[in-house]
Structure formats: structure tokens, C-alpha cells
Design goal:
1405 residues; six-stranded mixed β-sheet; 49 helices; 22 strands
């Protein structure tokens, strides 16, 4: 009976709708009881039942995953609906219900702060925490409190790790690439049908093996490829994009769904705004409608924020993954790439594939969905606008379309200017690089002013181009600022003038303006996106070409156990345990033979058979940026005893004592802090430690001094060395070792001419004996000088004093935490450089622009008020014209003010750039030499490159955006407060939330960015290192270890990138929430005070509020960017405040002809390099008479170079003084001193420019004088033979001249100056004997009437000096004529004896 009654009730109409009662048309609306008790219960229940299987599955699968929040959500959903109750029939039940409901609400809130695992909080984060990115809070807090370090980064999700991504990518890449290769070959077959037919006939006729036939057809392919390469792609193409799509299909589809949802939600707000305005117009409607619209506006905005941020998160993660996949693929390919492919691209280009091209893909992928989303948004906007304003919308759209070609024109012009600008930048950086590398020469010659002027001229040109670019940019900003004003002007003007019935109401005007605002973004984004897609297409081609290149042929080298090692076709058999020497002239193919044995060469026919493991020592040692120990172990396990034995044998023990960290010393990139000999010995030690079966040694003894070479041969390579039972193939030029080898292989032009033992070949009188004769002569000539100049194992580091800065045990520059809070002072410094007048004007003009914008909108809202005033009346045309005219004038005014402001800002910022740069340059050239000895050049160059680039381009842009955003936000707040004064109450709390979120974010974000850039460079340097050491890695078969290392390095970088992506989303969600609250309160207060305000003003206030969300977000981004960029000003200023050396010119100037006699006196002269270091010279006292020739000798570190540095005041005296012709040199200006002395330095440094500029940068001398000195320095015939003569361009570092010619040019410089005192820092091994003789003879003849100080490395050259000074540990041990010193049999005698000079031989000399 009860059931029957229930069904009757359900079926009866009155249960659903009571007759004559409307549930909505009353002040407190309600739903019918039945709807409450059925529909509202069923919806959440269905939701719960539908989700139950997943929920249960998750519970079954894992006990520890935090999934309760989902159930909390369902219960919350359910309870919420139950909570909508009418009367209260049962009080106890009602109370209990609300108590449980309250508890569930609390449980829901608590579930968002669930216990999260510390390794990776995202994995266990509950639903609410995921959509709001709450799980990042702990990291943001940590970053705010203290500087973050790499160890603070959380572990990556499995699906984001490099190994996982790479595996998936390779899985899809292989079939795609194979298919592309097939397509490519088919294409080539069609192309080369005729050619191939004719080529294939030959091999078949001669009946060659199929293998060779295959080879020929391959060659034909190569020929055809070369021919077509100009016309079209000569590699398998169009497979990379499909591979990327297949690999990341899921995340792409997810992001499409989110973007679609967000686009739809975007158009809901203007419709709600329309309803809101119509509600305020009709005062008879119930208040709850207004509240409902206010809440709906907020809910829609919130949903839009959440979907947008999920979409962005997916897109950025996708970009990150694509970049990772490409980087890993390029690295993997580089390990297996064949030598032919490798020759096509330099190391720099390969690193570029990994950095620039992969990054381009990353940037495009993040915004790829805009390709379909922008057109969609444009179409929907136009449809809605048509519904509002009819055909007059086309006028507005027409204006937008007309602006596009203007912008395109500006963009192409801008690109040209940008290219021109890059040329000047490159030119300037090239010269700066040379100046900093050759700074010592500039100081010694006092050439700084000439180079400074040169750099400033280029900088002037660069700033001119920058100014043009800035003006062009101002123009494009004018168009983009005028677009909204012009579009709304055109649309509204045509709308009201088409017919008198068309009256502009508040609904129409503000809904249209909201839609126009939506329309602006896609129109601005589309051209930019298309440009970046075009750029990425170039990267795609480059990546496809590299990744589809040929791999190295692994079949060339066989591992056949029958023979041990033989090379066919060159026909060479080597028995186990033999020591074989390979000799031959330069270019005879010795290194090529080594490469062939490693399987690196392209085999045309024949094979190589190797049994056992290989170790390889290349001609140029390859050193990793790791500790010395890691370089030797090279992935093998550490065995202390074996390690020590290897160190002893390779003569590394003395070096380890010198290195600050012993074997744990960090070696810089390319072994920067080791001498050439040390690098070679480390390379040899690596091979010895690896305990391989076969050793390929490509001339390892050439880079070391002769006695070290002897030690290595005896202890390692030779018949009694560590490797005596191994097979060794040694390429060598050292004749002395040949008698001790088992077999000698002589190469001539890539062919083995002789093989046999030393005695047999010597007797045969063939190519080998010729080779012996030429080399024996040279070596006997050098033999005398060898021992004279190698006093210690580490002779290569004699140029500078020990430099703590170069010996860091860790080579990474970490900014100190103090950098992070950028001081207000730095902003003020920048504004001061811009000029206070300029700065004030810019602020004022931007302020007026905002006022014009606000005024225009207020005028519009007043205009829409006419529709009420002239209701059912004819609208007077004069009024219409006034309205349109003023509206248009205000629109144009704001465009012009922005244009003016941007122009002024451009002028001001270029002014600032000019001032900051010239200060920096001016100061760096005046900094003492000690600074350059202790600071890595890269760090100084960074100031001139990256920091100046930031000041030139990034700071002005972010300053402008920042100002515009700030003004926009202030304008919005002003309008809302003007309309609804209540709003002022919530400004303070909202501003506080905003401020705190921003401060937290900026602190963390900046550090995540820093960690990103710090962890990014190891990826590229490791890759560059791998490519340059490829043959070594392949020889040792360590490819897998390097792949793993690369994955780890990329993962470290991904950790900070991932968190940076999430932190951007974390901020956006919170800021948009503040923006959504602004919308909500603007609408709410409009509803509350709807009786006292007009509907047109409500439209204005809410449409402003809807726009504020984006602006707030943008404001934080720009302020954050500005704060990050302004650090560049601080870094540049830091270098402008470095302490300078003494003045270049002082009031006390020496006489015009000084020094006339050329007498030099040292009086108790003491000197140290830096205040905290020990003395280098301990009280030197001596007199050098006019025209005396003095030789200065001593072991490495005795203080010889310090002595010359003191004469030029490169280092200042700690005590005592130096007098030249009775003038104390410390009293005169540096340039007065340095201009009157002449030096021929040890390293001949040349600068890029003309030959004439290298000799006479100030254009003081006539061409005749220059030709005369060229004749004296034996260069006249060479220079006159050049096409451009004296204007011949010298390459960077003088690379297009031989070392000998460079040294002769330095001699020419000295001859041109011809001062009374000449200092000769003798070139060691740089010069061949012939050049050396030329230099010595010229000096004897031309400088006979000068005082000459020679720092000698070859004792022969100073045996004819008037006196010789023997230095040791900064003191003079002996100072007398060479013959007297030899008779004394003291220090000098011992050194001479070592060099094979005796008293008798000296008399012959």
C-alpha cells in the first residue's frame, strides 16, 4: 500500500510542479520537493557508482597510494546536495546531518594537505592538490627561505626520465626512419635509373663479387646525391614529426581536450556579462539573479583558470620531453656516426643541434595547439559579434586584417636590422675576445687607447642599428595599441551610422568590447607562431639529416680468434706481444693507419682482424672535465696498487705533488689546467691502467720533453716497460727509440714501403735510411738546446705565477645568495644612466596614456547611457557625431602617447647602454694584469656578451611591459572603485595576497632558473667532450657508459626544468584566483548597489575586471623578468668599480728623448704578485750600463719573467725602485714608460685586422718606414707577394701566418719602435732554427747601440752577452761575463754543462 501511494505521489503532477506556483519567480527560489528527493540524489549517486570501479582498483593495486580524497569528493558532492532542504520536519536528524556534513567538509579540506612522500610529492598528491599545484608549496617555501641547490630537487616521475623517453622515442623512430630510407632510395632509383643501369653493367661483366657490386651502386647513389643536393634534399626526410607525434600521442590528445574546453569557457564570460547588464537595467528583477550571475562569473573564471593551467602544464612538459628525446637521440647518434657524416658537421654544429635546434622544438611544441585554437577563437568571436552588432562587425575585422600586412612589413624590416645588428655584435665580440686574450701584449706595448677606440667605433655603429630597430619597434607597438581603439571605433561608428534605429546599448557595447579583447590575443599570436614554425622547419631538416646519417660500419674490424692482428690490403701481420714502430714523413698516413685499426676509416675493400681488447692513445691527448683520477681510471674499478704503479711509470708522481688536490684535482675543460706534456702522460696512463691486450699509441712522446720521453719509453712502452708482454703499435718521430723495437713499419703516401727490424732496414738504404738522415740532423741540432730549457717536469706553466683561481678543485661559478635580492640601488643606477629627465618623461607619458584609455571607456559608458535617454526617440545626428568623434580622438591619443613613450624609452635605454658599456670597457682596459691572471677570461667575456646583451635588449623590453601592466592594473582598480566605492574595502587584502604570492614565487623561480642554467651547461660540455674524444670512447668500447652518463646529466637538468614549469603554473593558478576574486567582487558590489548606479557603468566595471586576470599574471612575469635582468646592470657595475692600475699619463712626464743612454738600475727591488702572496723577487740590486747585452737565465720559477714584468710595471714594487737614466719609473705614467721600452714577447700575439694595424695601430709611421722594418725582419718578399700588401687581413690570433712569420712580425714591431732598451723574452720551441738565426742576426745588427736584456732558454744564444745574470728563487746568484762564470764552475757552469757547452766550445762560438 505504501509503495502504491509513493508511486501515485511520484506520478502526480503536483509533486513536480504545483499548479500556479512558480519556484523561480519569487525572492527566495526553491526547487520542487520531488526534484530535490530524486534527481538531486541520483546525479551524485550515478557519479559515485560510475567512478567506483576505478576507485576500488586503485585501492586493490596499492595500499600506500593516497586515494581517499576521491571518495571524500564523492561524499562531499552527495552531502552537499542533501544539504538543500526546505522546512525542517525532523530536528534531531537535521542537526546530526549538518554536524556530519561539517565534519566531511573539514575532511575534504584536510585531504588537500595529505601526507606527501618527500622524494616526489606529485606522485602521492591528492586530486585537489594536483589541480591547484598545492604539492609544490614545500619547495616554494624552501626557496623563499634559503637558496636552493641541486640536491633539493625532487626525483623525476618515471615517465619524465630521459631513459624512458629515449627508449620510447627510439622504438618509434626506427620503423619511421627505415620507411623514410626506403622512400628515399626509391626516389633515388627513379632519379638515377639511367645512370645506375650503365654503372651496373660494368661490375657484372667483370664478374666481381656481389659485395663490390653493392659498393659501386652505393657510389653511384653518392654521385647522384651530390648532383641533386642543390635542388632537393639528399637524405631521408619527413619522418621526425611523425615519430614525435607517435611517441607523445597521449599527452598531445590530453592537451587538445583541455584547450578546447578552455576556448569554449572563454566565450561564456561575455554572455554572462550581457545577462548581468540586462539584470541591472531591469530594476524589477529579483536580487538572487544578480548574485547567481556574480557566482557564475566567478565559477566560469575559476574553471577557465584550472583548465588553462592544466593545458599549459601538459604543453610545457611535452616541450620538455620533445627536447629531451631529441637531445638523447643526437647524443646516441653521435656515438655511432660514421666518419663521413662526422666530417660534414663540426663539433660546434653538433652541439648546436643539441642546444639550439632541440630548444626550438621545445618552444614550438609548447604553443603548437594555437595553430588550430587561434582560428577557432577568431571564428567564434566573429560569430558572437555578428549576433550583437550585425554586419557592421566586418568593419572592425577589416581593420584588423589590414593591420596584418603592415606588421608583416615591419617584421621583415626588423629581421634585416636584427641580422645587421648581429654582425656588429659578432665583430665587437671577436675583437673583445682578442683584446682579453692578448691583454698583456696591449699593456706591454701601451696599445690600449687604439683598441678602445676601435671597439667604441663598432659599438657606435651597433647602437645606431639598435636605435633604428627600437624606432621600428615603437611603430609596431603604435599599431598594436591602436588596433583595439580603431577596431571598436570603426565597428561602433558604422553600427550607429548605418541606421537611426541602431542605438548603442550598454549590453551591446561592453559585450562587444569583451569579445574584441578575446580576439586580440589570437590575432597577435598567429603571425609569431607561424614565424617560429618556419624556423623550426629549418631545425627539423638539420636534425633529420644528422639522425639519418650513416652509422660506422662495425663489420670492418673482425674479432676472429685465429690471428691476433692483421690489416689486409695494407698487408700487415703483427704477432702477440710485439712492439711495432710506425714511421714516415708528415702526411704519409700514420694516423690513418691507427684510425683504420680502430675501424674508424671507410673501408673500400679488405678487412681488419683484431683479437682482444684495445687501448688507444691519440696524438692530441683527449682529457675529460673530471678529476685526474677519473681520467686515468676511465670507468675501470679502482685498484690502489695498480694505480700507483701506473702513476710512477707515466712520470705523473711529481705533477701530483704540484697539483693542489693531488689525483682529485678537477681538470678543466679540454685539460685547460694541465700542460701539453701532462695531458699526454694522463692519456697514456689511462691506456696502461685499462690493461688491454693491444695498445695503439699515436705519437704519445712528441708532446713531452726529451728526458720525460726517455723515462716513458723505458718504464712503459719499451722492452722492459709495464707493457712488455702486450702487443704495442707505436707511431713515433723519435729516432732514438727505434733500435729497441721488434719491427719497424715505414709508410710512404699511404703505402707500406718497408717492414723489418732496425738493423735490416738501416742496411737496405731505402726510404727508411733517408728518413733517418733528415731527422737525425734536426735532432742533433735541437739536442743541444733540449736539456738547456727543460729544467722541470712542468715546464709548460712558466708564463704566470701560480694562480689559485685556475686551480679550483671544482670548476663551477655559483652566485652567492646575496645576488638574489636585487637592491633598489641597482634600479636607481640604471635610471641614472638613462637620465632622470628621460625617466620622468616616460613615466608621465605612460600615465597620460592610461588616463586616455580610461577616459575613452568612461566616455563609451556615458554614450551607452543615451539609449535610455533617447528611448523611442530619434537619435540626433550631431550627438552621434560628437560621440564617435571624441571616442575616436581618445583612441588615437592613447596610441600616440604609447608611441611617444616607447620612443623616449628607446632613446633613454640606448643612452644607458652606451654609458654602461663605455664605463665597462674603459675600466677593464685599466685593470692591473693580476686581475686577468686570476679571473677566467670566459667570466669577463660574459660581461661583455650576455650582460651587455641583456642591458641592450631585455631590460628595455621588460621595463616597458612592466610600466604598461602596472598602469593598466591601476586604471582597472581606479575604474572599479569609481563605479562601486565598496570595492576599495577588498583592495587591501587582495593586494596583500598578490604581494605575498609574488614574493614567494620570484624567490623560488629565480633560483630554479639559475639551477636550470647551471645544470644545462654540463650537458653541452659533456657532449662536446664526447664528440672530440669519439675515437677514444669507441676504442675502449665505453659507448654505453657515456650514454648512461648523458642520461644522468640530462635528468639533473630536467629536475629543475620540471619544477620551473610547475612553479609557473603554481603562480598562475594563485594569481588568476586573485583576478577571479576581483571579477566576483566587482559583480557582487554592482548587484548590492544596483539601485544607485547605471547599467552602463556596471558593464564598464565588470568588463574591466574580466581583463585584469591576464594583466595581473603578466605583471608578475614582467616584474620577475625585470628583476632577473637587472642583475646584469649590477654585474657590469661590479666590473666598472675594479681597482685600476696607475695612471697612463701623470703630471710628471719624462724628457722627450728619455731614455737616451739606456742605463737600468735596480735598487733593493722586491716584488710580489698580490699582497697576500710571498715575494717573487727578494731585493734585487744591480747596475746595467748603456748598450750592455745582458743574458738572464734560471730554472722555471726563478723570477726571470717577473723581472721584465717589473720593468714595464705590470707588477708594482713592494719595496725598492728601478731607475732608467736616473728617472724612478714609479713616478711617471704607465704609457710614458711602456712607450719608451721595447719587448719581443715569448708568444707572438697578433690581432685580427690588417698587417699594418698589427705593426702600427696608431698610424704614427709612414709606409716607407714600415716597408724598411719589414725588409730588416726578412718579411718584405712575403708581404709584397700578397695581393693586398700591408692591408693583408690577419686572421684571429694570426692563424693564417706561420709561427715563424708571426715571430718575425713581432721583431718588426720592435724595430719600428727602436727604443734604447730592448727586452727579449726568447721564444722556446715555437720557432724553427732558421727563423731563430734570422732574428738573432737582425737584433745584433740593428740593436747594437741599445741595452738588450735577453731571457734565455737556449744557453747558446746568450754566450756572446756582455754579462749573464743567473737567478734562482728571486735572488741573483751570479752576475758576470759568460767566460768568467764558466771558469768559476758555479751554477752557470752546471747549466752549461747540461747543455753541452764547455769553456772550449764557448771560445769557438
Amino acid at each position: 500500500y505504501a509503495e502504491k501511494k509513493m508511486i501515485n505521489v511520484l506520478v502526480s503532477e503536483s509533486f513536480w510542479f504545483q499548479k500556479n506556483v512558480s519556484y523561480l519567480k519569487r525572492p527566495d527560489p526553491d526547487l520542487p520537493l520531488c526534484v530535490e528527493q530524486t534527481v538531486l540524489v541520483w546525479i551524485p549517486l550515478c557519479f559515485l557508482w560510475l567512478c567506483a570501479p576505478w576507485h576500488l582498483l586503485a585501492l586493490c593495486q596499492s595500499a600506500n597510494v593516497n586515494t581517499q580524497p576521491l571518495s571524500k569528493l564523492y561524499i562531499f558532492f552527495l552531502s552537499l546536495i542533501f544539504g538543500i532542504q526546505g522546512e525542517v520536519p525532523d530536528v534531531p536528524r537535521f542537526s546530526l546531518f549538518y554536524i556530519s556534513f561539517g565534519l566531511e567538509l573539514i575532511a575534504l579540506v584536510l585531504s588537500t594537505v595529505a601526507d606527501i612522500p618527500p622524494e616526489n610529492p606529485e606522485a602521492g598528491a591528492p586530486f585537489l592538490s594536483r589541480i591547484t599545484f598545492n604539492w609544490l608549496n614545500s619547495m616554494v617555501l624552501k626557496g623563499y627561505k634559503q637558496p636552493l641547490v641541486q640536491e633539493d630537487m625532487w626525483d623525476l616521475n618515471e615517465s619524465d626520465s630521459t631513459a624512458f623517453i629515449n627508449e620510447r622515442f627510439q622504438h618509434f623512430m626506427k620503423p619511421e626512419l627505415d620507411a623514410a630510407r626506403v622512400r628515399f632510395q626509391n626516389k633515388m632509383k627513379k632519379k638515377s635509373a639511367k645512370t645506375r643501369d650503365s654503372a651496373q653493367e660494368d661490375p657484372q661483366q667483370s664478374g666481381l663479387s656481389s659485395g663490390l657490386g653493392k659498393g659501386v651502386s652505393q657510389d653511384v647513389l653518392m654521385m647522384v646525391r651530390k648532383k641533386d643536393s642543390k635542388e632537393e634534399e639528399n637524405y631521408p626526410s619527413s619522418w621526425l614529426i611523425t615519430t614525435i607525434y607517435k611517441t607523445f600521442k597521449r599527452i598531445l590528445i590530453e592537451s587538445v581536450c583541455f584547450k578546447l574546453l578552455e576556448d569554449v569557457l572563454t566565450f561564456v564570460s561575455p554572455q554572462l556579462l550581457k545577462l548581468m547588464i540586462s539584470f541591472t537595467q531591469d530594476k524589477s528583477r529579483y536580487a538572487w539573479e544578480g548574485y547567481l550571475y556574480a557566482v557564475l562569473l566567478m565559477v566560469v573564471a575559476l574553471l577557465q583558470s584550472l583548465t588553462l593551467q592544466q593545458y599549459f602544464q601538459r604543453c610545457h612538459v611535452l616541450g620538455m620531453k620533445v627536447r629531451t628525446a631529441l637531445m638523447a637521440a643526437v647524443y646516441k647518434k653521435a656515438l655511432v656516426v660514421s666518419n663521413d657524416t662526422r666530417k660534414e658537421s663540426t663539433v660546434g654544429e653538433m652541439v648546436n643541434l643539441m642546444s639550439a635546434d632541440a630548444q626550438r622544438f621545445n618552444d614550438v611544441t609548447t604553443s603548437i595547439h594555437l595553430l588550430w585554437s587561434c582560428p577557432l577563437q577568431i571564428i567564434i568571436s566573429i560569430v558572437f559579434l555578428w549576433l550583437e552588432l550585425g554586419p557592421s562587425v566586418l568593419a572592425g575585422v577589416g581593420v584588423m586584417v589590414l593591420i596584418i600586412p603592415t606588421n608583416a612589413l615591419i617584421a621583415t624590416k626588423a629581421r634585416k636590422l636584427q641580422i645587421e645588428n648581429m654582425k656588429f655584435k659578432d665583430k665587437r665580440m671577436k675583437i673583445m675576445n682578442e683584446i682579453l686574450n692578448g691583454i698583456k701584449i696591449l699593456k706591454l706595448y701601451a696599445w690600449e687607447p687604439s683598441f678602445q677606440k676601435h671597439v667604441e667605433d663598432i659599438r657606435g655603429e651597433e647602437l645606431k642599428v639598435m636605435k633604428k630597430f627600437a624606432y621600428l619597434h615603437s611603430f609596431s607597438i603604435l599599431t598594436s595599441c591602436c588596433i583595439p581603439a580603431l577596431v571598436s571605433l570603426a565597428t561602433f561608428a558604422i553600427f550607429v551610422s548605418v541606421s537611426n534605429d541602431n542605438v548603442l546599448t550598454a549590453e551591446k557595447a561592453f559585450t562587444s568590447i569583451s569579445l574584441f579583447n578575446i580576439l586580440r590575443a589570437p590575432l597577435a599570436m598567429l603571425p609569431m607562431l607561424i614565424a617560429s614554425v618556419v624556423q623550426t622547419a629549418v631545425s627539423k631538416k638539420r636534425l633529420e639529416k644528422f639522425l639519418a646519417g650513416e652509422d660506422i660500419d662495425s663489420d670492418i674490424v673482425r674479432q676472429d680468434p685465429i690471428q691476433l692482428l692483421c690489416v689486409s690490403s695494407v698487408n700487415l701481420d703483427i704477432e702477440p706481444g710485439q712492439l711495432v714502430a710506425v714511421v714516415g714523413a708528415v702526411g704519409s698516413g700514420k694516423s690513418s693507419l691507427m684510425s683504420a685499426l680502430l675501424g674508424e676509416m671507410h673501408s673500400t675493400k679488405g678487412f681488419i682482424n683484431i683479437m682482444g681488447s684495445l687501448a688507444f692513445v691519440p696524438q692530441q691527448a683527449w682529457i675529460q672535465n673530471a678529476t685526474l683520477k677519473d681520467n686515468i681510471l676511465f670507468g675501470s674499478p679502482h685498484e690502489e696498487e695498480n694505480f700507483k704503479k701506473v702513476i710512477q711509470a707515466c712520470a705523473l708522481a711529481p705533477d701530483l705533488e704540484l697539483l693542489p688536490g693531488g689525483d682529485l684535482t678537477e681538470i678543466g675543460e679540454k685539460g685547460i689546467n694541465l700542460s701539453g706534456g701532462q695531458k699526454q702522460r694522463v692519456s697514456l696512463a689511462r691506456a696502461v691502467y685499462s690493461q688491454a691486450d693491444i695498445y695503439l699509441l699515436d705519437d704519445p712522446l712528441s708532446a713531452v720533453d726529451s728526458h720525460v720521453g726517455k723515462h716513458l719509453f723505458e718504464n712503459v712502452i719499451g722492452p722492459n716497460g709495464i707493457l712488455k708482454n702486450k702487443t704495442r703499435i707505436l707511431v713515433t718521430h723519435g729516432i732514438s727509440f727505434l733500435p729497441y723495437v721488434d719491427k719497424i713499419v715505414v709508410l710512404e703516401n699511404g703505402v707500406i714501403s718497408e717492414v723489418g727490424s732496425y738493423e735490416n732496414l738501416r742496411a737496405s738504404g731505402g726510404a727508411f735510411s733517408k728518413f733517418l738522415d733528415t731527422y737525425a740532423k734536426e735532432q742533433s741540432n735541437q739536442g743541444n738546446s733540449e736539456t738547456g730549457h727543460c729544467f722541470s717536469y712542468t715546464g709548460a706553466r712558466r708564463q704566470h705565477p701560480p694562480q689559485p683561481a685556475q686551480w679550483q678543485v671544482r670548476a663551477c661559478e655559483m652566485p652567492s645568495p646575496a645576488d638574489f635580492q636585487v637592491k633598489l640601488g641597482v634600479f636607481l643606477q640604471y635610471l641614472r644612466a638613462m637620465g632622470w629627465g628621460y625617466s620622468a618623461m616616460v613615466f608621465l607619458i605612460y600615465f597620460i596614456q592610461t588616463a586616455a584609455f580610461t577616459g575613452q571607456n568612461l566616455w563609451l559608458s556615458d554614450w551607452t547611457g543615451d539609449s535610455v535617454e533617447y528611448y523611442n526617440m530619434t537619435y540626433p545626428s550631431w550627438k552621434r557625431d560628437t560621440r564617435v568623434g571624441v571616442f575616436g580622438a581618445l583612441g588615437v591619443a592613447q596610441g600616440l602617447f604609447v608611441f611617444l613613450g616607447t620612443l623616449l624609452l628607446a632613446n633613454a635605454s640606448i643612452n644607458a647602454s652606451r654609458i654602461l658599456y663605455s664605463r665597462l670597457l674603459n675600466n677593464i682596459l685599466r685593470v692591473p694584469m693580476v686581475f686577468f691572471d686570476t679571473t677566467p677570461i670566459g667570466r669577463v667575456i660574459n660581461r661583455f656578451a650576455k650582460d651587455i646583451f641583456t642591458i641592450d635588449e631585455a631590460i628595455p623590453a621588460s621595463l616597458r611591459s612592466c610600466l604598461l601592466c602596472l598602469m593598466s592594473v591601476l586604471g582597472t582598480v581606479f575604474v572599479i572603485c569609481l563605479v562601486t566605492p565598496f570595492f576599495a574595502i577588498v583592495i587591501i587584502p587582495l593586494a596583500l595576497i598578490y604581494f605575498f604570492v609574488q614574493r614567494f614565487y620570484i624567490a623560488t623561480s629565480r633560483q630554479l632558473r639559475r639551477l636550470d642554467s647551471v645544470s644545462r651547461s654540463p650537458i653541452y660540455s659533456h657532449f662536446g667532450e664526447t664528440v672530440s674524444g669519439l675515437s677514444v670512447i669507441r676504442a675502449y668500447k665505453h659507448q654505453d657508459r657515456f650514454l648512461k652518463h648523458n642520461e644522468v646529466t640530462i635528468d639533473e637538468n630536467l629536475k629543475s626544468i620540471y619544477l620551473r614549469i610547475v612553479s609557473d603554473r603554481w603562480l598562475a593558478i594563485r594569481l588568476e584566483f586573485v583576478g577571479n576574486l576581483v571579477v566576483f567582487f566587482a559583480a557582487l558590489f554592482a548587484v548590492i548597489s544596483r539601485d544607485s548606479i547605471d547599467s552602463n557603468v556596471v558593464g564598464l566595471s565588470v568588463s574591466y575586471a574580466l581583463n585584469v586576470t591576464q594583466t595581473l599574471n603578466w605583471l608578475v612575469m614582467t616584474t620577475s623578468a625585470l628583476e632577473t635582468n637587472i642583475v646584469a646592470v649590477e654585474r657590469v657595475n661590479e666590473y666598472t668599480q675594479l681597482k685600476n692600475e696607475a695612471d697612463w699619463v701623470t703630471d710628471t712626464r719624462p724628457p722627450q728623448m728619455w731614455p737616451e743612454a739606456g742605463r737600468v738600475q735596480f735598487e733593493n727591488f722586491k716584488v710580489r704578485y698580490r699582497p697576500e702572496l710571498d715575494l717573487v723577487l727578494h731585493g734585487i740590486t744591480c747596475d746595467i750600463d748603456s748598450t750592455e747585452k745582458i743574458g738572464i737565465v734560471g730554472r722555471t720559477g726563478a723570477g726571470k719573467s717577473s723581472l721584465t714584468n717589473c720593468l714595464f710595471r705590470i707588477i708594482e714594487a713592494a719595496e725598492g725602485c728601478i731607475r732608467i737614466d736616473d728617472v724612478d719609473i714609479s713616478t711617471i705614467g704607465l704609457h710614458d714608460l711602456r712607450n719608451r721600452l721595447t719587448i719581443i714577447p715569448q708568444d707572438p700575439v697578433l690581432f685580427s685586422g690588417s698587417l699594418r694595424m698589427n705593426l702600427d695601430p696608431f698610424d704614427k709611421f709612414s709606409d716607407e718606414e714600415i716597408w724598411r722594418v719589414l725588409e730588416l725582419s726578412h718579411l718584405q718578399s712575403y708581404v709584397s707577394g700578397l695581393q693586398e700588401g700591408l692591408q693583408h687581413k690577419v686572421a684571429e690570433g694570426g692563424e693564417n701566418l706561420s709561427v715563424g712569420q708571426r715571430q718575425l712580425l713581432c721583431l718588426a714591431r720592435a724595430l719600428l719602435r727602436k727604443s734604447r732598451i730592448l727586452i727579449l723574452d726568447e721564444a722556446t720551441a715555437a720557432v724553427d732554427l732558421e727563423t731563430d738565426n734570422l732574428i738573432q742576426n737582425t737584433i745584433h745588427k740593428e740593436f747594437s747601440d741599445c741595452t738588450v736584456l735577453t731571457i734565455a732558454h737556449r744557453l747558446h744564444s746568450i754566450m756572446d752577452s756582455s754579462r749573464v745574470m743567473v737567478l734562482d728563487a728571486g735572488k741573483i746568484l751570479e752576475f758576470d761575463s759568460p767566460s768568467n762564470l764558466l771558469e768559476k764552475e758555479g751554477h752557470f757552469y752546471a747549466m752549461a754543462k747540461d747543455a753541452g757547452i764547455t769553456l772550449e766550445s764557448n771560445t769557438h762560438l
